[in-house]
Amino acid sequence: MTNELVAQEQRGGAMMQSVAEVEQQMKALEELMARCLKKGNLKDGNEGDYYTLPGGKKPCLSKAGAQKVAVMFRFAASYPIIEDLSTANESRYRVLCRLNRPDGLFVGEQWGEASSAESKNKWRKALDDEEYDDAHEDEKRTVKRKNFAGDIYEVRQIMVNRADSTTNVLPKAQKRAYVQAVLAASGASCLFTSGLESDDPDLPDGNGKQPREPIQQPRAKAAPSASADALTVQGVIEARSEKPTTNNSIRYSFKIADGWYVTFDEKIAAPCVKGAVVTITYKVGKYGNDIISATLFSEGAAE
Predict the structure, then answer these.
(1) Quick one: pLDDT at residue 275?
(2) Are 168 and 294 in a shared domain?
(3) Residue 122 located in a structural domain
(4) Does the residue 215 lie in any domain?
(5) Is residue 208 part of a domain?
(6) Distance of CA 291 to the CA centre of its chain
(7) How many angstroms separate the CA atoms of 271 and 296, rounded?
(8) CATH code of residue 88
(9) Quick one: pLDDT at residue 284?
């Protein structure tokens, strides 16, 4: 039984709501949505109590919103069955969520399932070039995504350690079962859908722009150069990476302290070898800290 508020059976006797009572229930849900449920904004990474997806016909009910619906209808949730379907290579759980009222009356139940093999649990965005390049070839990938503006871009991902993803699998299965059970038992499916979760990889990117590496401010002392919006930094090249791009050029990245600096110019990159002390002039631009010029520290001192 999935909607016991419309037609219930208890102890072999039929208990049925009138049309007026069903209408009152639907009005109560609409009033709850208008007065108590807060709309989220996925562009800001916030589900709220419900949220909308581009092109979606119904808003998606989050766990927080489902809890408010459950409070109104006085639903109490329990999870009498938890099936561990895990294998040597995957953590998987299947959970039954059962809803009852305080007097013990059963009102509905639904199953939910989650797995560590799901893309959202198995992969995450690489923090920077170095983390991506250091990952084993079998543990990294590049996927295409679409932002809210409709633009296509690529995201570099690395595989999540199974032990890290496993801890989220059972709670996700419980969450999915809970939201589905509340939707069915309350009749709120006419207003909401369970939809996608906020961390689903099929969701558009929230910022509406192609993501770039985070801009790191170097610990080394930085001062304005002759150009008003240019900066300089001096320090030891701690790491260097060279990555071919789709237009047959090479992207050179260098790490000084906690900052990464980027150039596509081979001549600029030449003195920036690992272990060298260099002076870099850069601007914050399209690729993060874009290098304008780079010289060995001893050369700069000689001038």
Answers:
(1) 83
(2) no
(3) no
(4) no
(5) no
(6) 31
(7) 6
(8) 3.30.390
(9) 77
pLDDT at 218: 43
Q: Residue 212's pLDDT is what?
A: 41
The contacts found for 28-36 with CB under 8 angstroms, 24 or more apart, are 28/72, 29/69, 29/186, 29/187, 29/188, 29/190, 29/191, 30/191, 32/68, 32/69, 32/72, 33/191, 36/68
3-state secondary structure of 253: strand
Secondary structure tally for the chain: helices H, strands E: 7, 19
Of residues 277, 241, 243, 239, the one with CA closest to residue 258: 239
Specify the pLDDT at position 297.
Answer: 61
Last residue of a domain, one of 190, 209, 241: 190
Residue 148 has a pLDDT of: 62
Q: What's the length of the chain?
A: 303
SS3 label, residue 38 = coil
pLDDT of residue 229: 64
pTM over 0.85: no
Verify that 176 and 253 share a domain, yes or no: no
Range of the domain at 23: 7-113+161-190
Structure tokens at 293: 């010029």
d(CA 156, CA 129): 9
Q: What is the CATH number of the domain that holds 295?
A: 2.40.50.140
Residues of the chain with pLDDT under 70: 1-16, 54-55, 147-149, 162-166, 195-229, 247, 286-287, 297-303
- pLDDT score of 301: 35
Read off the amino acid at residue 107.
V
Q: Is 149 helix (H, G, I), strand (E, B) or coil?
A: coil
Helical ranges in the chain per DSSP H = 19-35, 63-73, 119-122, 129-134, 162-186, 266-269, 297-302
Q: Are strands 259-263 and 288-296 parallel, antiparallel or unpaired?
A: parallel
The pLDDT of residue 122 is 77
Q: Are residues 167 and 237 both part of a single domain?
A: no
Q: Report the mean per-residue pLDDT for the chain.
A: 77
Split into its structural domains, the chain has a count of: 2
